[in-house]
From TrEMBL, chain A:
This is sulfate adenylyltransferase. It is an enzyme of class 2 (transferase). The keyword Lyase does not apply. The lineage of its organism: Bacteria, Pseudomonadati, Bacteroidota, Flavobacteriia, Flavobacteriales. Residues 6-218 form the Tr-type G domain. CDD domains: CysN_ATPS, CysN_NodQ_II, CysN_NoDQ_III. PROSITE patterns: G_TR_1 (PS00301), G_TR_2 (PS51722). It comes from Sinomicrobium weinanense.
TrEMBL record, chain B:
It comes from Sinomicrobium weinanense. InterPro entries: PAPS_reduct_dom, Rossmann-like_a/b/a_fold, SO4_adenylTrfase_ssu, Sulfate_adenylyltrnsfr_sub2. Keywords: ATP-binding, Nucleotide-binding, Nucleotidyltransferase, Transferase. This is Sulfate adenylyltransferase subunit 2. It holds the Pfam family PAPS_reduct. The gene is cysD.
Length: 418, 301
């Protein structure tokens, strides 16, 4: 297959059935020929049963029993399709405010976000919320799809107007790359195939954008960070003294001979080998899973981080974090939580809520009393030991953390270190 | 200039290895659920890579319905030998003998649902706190909602509406006594990815996946293999066809497709032009629109 060298692109789509989100995903799958006959037959049958004309593309994204009954997306669903240029993973997330936590979840691993705007309604509260979450989670690329162009006579003016509305608002956000596409998911215009109804539009289709978007430079290649997941000690004949530190490169590039420091102990050494099943490697970069050996015998265990000696992460017990609360039970003031950050785990306390963000208006309210489900707040965390981190903006792996309630073992919050 | 990005297959592999290492680090007694099918074979191969040069640290657990393809059992035993790994077998026949479950009755009776009890008993009996599976999100709509680390309560049940959010690649495997986790390292792989990977890595798979001549019966739109467990209906006829299996499960529910693909490369080519989903030949999924979701809630794979 010619796919051999093609990359993986993960994107999220936030929105509701009303925005045409399900129709858009159905259209991408259908027009890229990723739908199987038995799926098509099932959807045709249901479409007929429901009295729809033709095939209701939205039905391709049907999920769990409850979701089907209510006609909404509740939880993130992952969908897959492949074109000769790329493999795609869609994190299909609900758009309603009540499901902010699921949007955040889907956004956390995405390379790109598709934000749907209904051409008839322009930029609304929901649009602003989706754009804010994409920027908060630092999704590198945003594609604003102005959908239902067929319902506004494919008007260039309407499209330009919405672009302007969006730009006025997005200038306040930290997004590097925003593109706009006028589409009709229902009819297929500019999704996979070029629109004949919008000759004024000279840009590329949505699929072409997704296929050609440059994503390899989004990964941090400067700061070498290697969180140790586990230690490999085979203790067999062939590898009697082997002691490999297994992990996934979070960022930067590692090479044998590099002078490294092991944190938090601070011992220095050099990388002896970088090993994979296939043999020794000349270098390792994100997101490769490898095993690293060092020249010196140092006590290293899970939770430690190997970094280049001349480029270290910050280390502090007091950190400021943008926190998204994910749990039904609100945050307990001054309660202790488990914090998981890379392969490290320790305890933390929310010392202070600095402000809460109204995710529809982006206004900050100092009234940060409680912290409830779907709230996004800036807080001060105090950890029991120094956390080794980079800011989330510079490093999505070493800048992210989760909080776990030890009474329930549930993941209650997602944090992005400021 | 060297490239500093991975191709899609390398990225999926690296992700799976990361998940397997997290399982090892976060649990006391994790096992790989091994069915003899291609997905669990790929997971086992990935585990071997993840811990090299150390030995694969997981035991392999097989839930044996007693209705096996002999080829699967042979393959399983050969692999266990080669890996030097421990094998745990949960036997559905034993569960029946002990009166834990009763055989289904009727024409389409299978032991598929019975496996749930055997699986949960084996997990409890062996004090397993994480069972690693080869489930993929592209297989089925209920599986599309699965996490990499998926929590099961002390009855082994899955609560799809109340799953822990899973952000970035930070996995929360914390659990109370009696609860366990299922981990799915190849969640993000599609059937095509699995075949491309088997091809690339030259992974050995049971001969059943390759086109071969076999006695079969046409039932529920696919070719069901003739075996001592199959009860023929009056209008059914045993014929010999050149077929292969797209998925492998219990011999009574796994349907074959007519095919000439006798190498992994040919299979990969065939799959890329396939117009039916993989599980379309599994009668266990055809019972109702939500049959997978229903079984998964109870503790199925």
């Amino acid at each position: 297959m010619e796919l051999d060298n093609s990359q993986l692109l993960r994107f999220t789509t936030a929105g509701s059935v009303d925005d045409g989100k399900s129709t858009l995903i159905g259209r991408l799958l259908y027009d890229s020929k990723s739908i199987f006959e038995d799926q098509l037959e099932a959807v045709e049958t249901t479409s007929k049963k429901k009295g729809h004309e033709g095939v209701d593309l939205a039905l391709f994204t049907d999920g769990l029993k409850d979701e089907r009954e209510q006609g909404i997306t509740i939880d993130v669903a992952y969908r897959y399709f492949t074109t000769p240029k790329r493999k795609f993973i869609i994190a299909d997330t609900p758009g309603h405010i009540q499901y902010t936590r699921n949007m955040v979840t889907g956004a956390s691993t995405a390379n790109a976000a598709i934000i749907l705007v209904d051409a008839r309604h322009g930029v609304i509260e929901q649009t602003r919320r989706h754009a804010f979450i994409a920027s908060l989670l630092q999704i590198p690329h945003i594609i604003v799809c102005v959908n239902k162009m067929d319902l506004v006579d494919f008007s260039e003016e309407v499209f330009n107007d919405i672009v302007k509305q969006f730009e006025e608002f997005s200038s306040k956000l930290l997004v590097k790359d925003i593109r706009f596409r006028p589409i009709s998911a229902l009819l297929g215009d500019n999704v996979v195939n070029r629109s004949e109804n919008m000759p004024w539009y000279e840009g590329s289709t949505l699929l072409h954008t997704l296929e050609t978007m440059h994503i390899s430079s989004d990964i941090n290649k400067v700061d070498a960070r290697f969180p140790v997941q586990t230690v490999l000690r085979p203790q067999n004949e062939e590898h009697r003294d082997y002691r490999g530190y297994a992990g996934r490169v979070a960022s930067g590039v590692l090479r044998p001979g590099d002078e490294v420091t092991v944190l938090p102990s601070g011992f220095t050494s050099r990388i002896k080998t970088i090993d994979a099943f296939e043999g020794a490697l000349e270098e390792a970069y994100a997101p490769m899973s490898v095993s690293v050996t060092l020249e010196d015998d140092i006590d290293i265990s899970r939770g430690d981080m190997i970094v280049r000696s001349n480029n270290k992460p910050e280390a502090s017990q007091d950190i400021e974090v943008m926190l998204c609360w994910l749990n039904n039970s609100p945050a307990k003031p001054r309660a202790k939580y488990s914090v998981k950050h890379t392969s490290n785990e320790q305890k933390a306390m929310i010392k202070e809520i600095l402000y809460k963000i109204d995710i529809n208006t982006l206004d900050r309210s100092p009234d940060g009393e409680g912290l409830e489900m779907n709230d996004i707040c800036k807080v001060k965390l105090r950890t029991t030991k120094p956390l080794l981190f980079d800011s989330y903006r510079e490093n999505r792996t070493t800048g992210s953390l989760i909080l776990i309630d030890e009474d329930t073992n549930e993941t209650v919050a997602a944090g992005m270190i400021v | 200039m060297s490239k500093y990005y991975l191709n899609y297959l390398d990225e999926l592999e690296s992700e799976a290895i990361y998940v397997l290492r997290e399982v090892w680090a976060q649990f006391q007694n994790p096992v790989i659920l091994f069915s003899g099918g291609k997905d669990s074979i790929v997971v086992t191969h990935l585990a071997r890579k993840a811990f090299y040069p150390a030995k694969i640290p997981f035991a392999l657990m097989h839930v044996d319905t007693g209705h096996n393809f002999p080829e699967t059992i042979q393959f399983r035993d050969d692999l266990i030998n080669e890996l030097g790994a421990r094998l745990i077998v949960g036997s559905v026949q034993e569960s029946i003998n002990q009166g834990r479950v009763a055989e289904e009755k009727g024409k389409n009776a299978t032991r598929n649902a019975l496996q749930i009890t055997t699986l949960l008993d084996a997990i409890e009996g062996n004090k397993i706190d994480c069972a690693i599976g080869g489930g993929r999100r592209d297989e089925e709509k209920a599986r599309a909602k699965e996490r990499f680390f998926s929590h099961r309560d002390d009855f082994g049940q899955w609560d799809p509406k109340n799953q822990r959010p899973e952000l970035w690649n930070i996995f929360n495997g914390k659990h109370f006594e009696g609860e366990h986790f299922r981990a799915f390292p190849i969640s993000n792989w599609t059937e095509m990815d699995v075949w491309n990977y088997i091809n690339r890595e030259n992974i050995q798979i049971p001969s059943l996946y390759f086109a071969h001549e076999r006695e079969v019966v046409w039932r529920n739109n696919s070719w069901i293999p003739n075996s001592e467990f199959l009860k023929l209906e009056d209008n059914e006829e045993v014929v010999v066809k050149k077929i292969r299996f797209r998925t492998l499960g219990d011999i009574t529910i796994t349907g074959g497709i007519e095919s000439d693909a006798d190498t992994v490369e040919k299979i990969a080519d065939e799959v890329s032009t396939m117009r039916q989903t993989e599980r379309g030949n599994r009668t266990d999924d055809k019972r109702s629109e939500t049959s997978m979701e229903d079984r998964k809630r109870q503790g199925y794979f």
